[in-house]
Design a protein that fits this description.
By secondary structure, the chain is mostly helical. The chain has 6 helices and no strands. Helix 3 runs parallel beside helix 5.
Length: 191
């Protein structure tokens, strides 16, 4: 059978006796994986947004303190160095402590460290060694938060939801930290 109508009309080799199926966008309620996971997911996105901004703001702030490309590149590396040094020990620790308390403590330390940078900037006491220390310690806290968040997932999801939950957290981390937080900080710095 030949037909001059488009494929979606249901003629030709793609003919069907059934009407075309209409797919609808899922509602926000159907995307939820439970209130506990949703809170964890939102907290993770917020945390990764702040990480993206901080690891972009650190080198931009360093440019105001030094003109040495070597020192600026060292600062950029200090943010990732804790993953190399502490991921395995922190993973072991995350399995042995109260995870909710650990997440709250690590995020509180990050908040205090950013407050220290703001205080040093306002008083005119910002130095490169202080910035190095803060970026490194925020990196340690990032390892703690991200590792502990992964350890919490099996506690808040059913086994059948683990793959979807892990995918959601990984996607949020990549997109929010790399493609949202960092560009927004660069845009804010140029204003």
């Amino acid at each position: 059978q030949t037909c001059a109508l488009p494929i979606s009309s249901g003629c030709g080799p793609f003919a069907s006796s059934h009407p075309p199926r209409v797919t609808r966008m899922p509602s926000l309620r159907s995307l939820s994986m439970g209130p506990t996971f949703d809170r964890l997911w939102c907290a993770s996105m917020t945390s990764n947004f702040a990480d993206g901004m901080m690891f972009t703001a650190g080198p931009l702030l360093a440019v105001t303190l030094t003109r040495s490309p070597l020192l600026i590149s060292i600062l950029s590396s200090l943010g990732s160095l804790p993953w190399l040094l502490f991921a395995i020990p922190i993973g072991g620790l995350a399995d042995r402590v109260d995870r909710g308390y650990a997440l709250a403590l690590a995020n509180a330390v990050r908040f205090a460290l950013v407050g220290l940078v703001v205080w040093a900037l306002l008083l005119g006491h910002m130095t490169l060694p202080l910035l190095f220390a803060v970026v490194f310690l925020i990196g340690v806290c990032e390892v703690f938060v991200d590792t502990t968040t992964q350890a919490v997932i099996p506690m808040v999801l059913e086994p059948s939801q683990l793959e979807r939950g892990n995918a959601r957290l990984s996607l949020a981390e990549s997109v929010i930290q790399t493609f949202v937080g960092a560009p927004l900080e660069i845009g804010r710095a140029h204003v």
